[in-house]
Design goal:
Layout lengths: L3 H10 L36 H6 L7 H16 L9 H4 L2 H17 L4 H24 L1 H11 L15 H40 L1
């Protein structure tokens, strides 16, 4: 018979089963009967068997295939015309960034200690903010409609403010002094070269 201390140790070492959070995905609104992107527009699919359609549908698809279909739906939302393939909204990374950011948000809700993916998500958010800022400067109406269609909330970046310290002021003054001295040396060197060129030109004329 095992001692009570050994039984307590075994019970403590037993792995604890935790329930996973049931987090809704942004890909759940895709119907499972929808075909994959590569097979959706093929005319031969109308004459295929139901079993084949089920295999080629989103029910048996991976997350990558579902993201392709989701991206195509977002392109159809922001497209200016049926034949629009060259506008900034269609070719840019806004739609792809939106899907990747939502996917990483759901992943971090399940795994909050994943620092690498958190860093990737923050980098994607900054990249999307830069693209939206460019679109806002170029065409504000398109910027508003794109944010509304893609369900994106744009927040302009905060102005950069540095904490001024005595060490930073001394370093800045030294950098300015070195820059001015270097500028004087380059000016003297340019003046010397110019005088040499003028002297050679005079000698060539004579």
């Amino acid at each position: 018979a095992c001692s009570s201390l050994l039984q307590a140790a075994r019970g403590y070492a037993r792995p604890v089963t935790r329930k996973r959070k049931d987090i809704p995905s942004h890909l759940d609104d895709l119907p499972p009967t929808m075909l994959k992107k590569d097979y959706a527009n093929l005319p031969i699919m109308n004459s295929m068997d139901d079993v084949v359609k089920r295999v080629l549908s989103l029910e048996m698809a991976s997350q990558k295939e579902k993201m392709k279909v989701k991206t195509q739906q977002l392109v159809e939302k922001v497209r200016r015309s049926p034949n629009d393939n060259g506008s900034f909204e269609v070719q840019g990374k806004l739609k792809k960034g939106r899907i990747l950011i939502r996917t990483l948000e759901e992943h971090l809700q399940r795994h909050p200690k994943d620092k690498r993916n958190r860093r990737c998500m923050l980098m994607d958010v900054d990249r999307r903010r830069k693209l939206l800022g460019y679109l806002r400067r170029v065409n504000y109406n398109t910027f508003e409609s794109t944010c509304k269609q893609l369900d994106i909330q744009y927040s302009p970046p905060q102005p950069y403010a540095r904490h001024v310290t005595k060490r930073w002021l001394v370093k800045k003054a030294l950098c300015i002094k070195v820059y001015q001295e270097t500028k004087k040396l380059k000016a003297a060197k340019r003046l010397k070269q110019r005088r040499e060129w003028q002297a050679r030109a005079r000698a060539a004329r004579k």
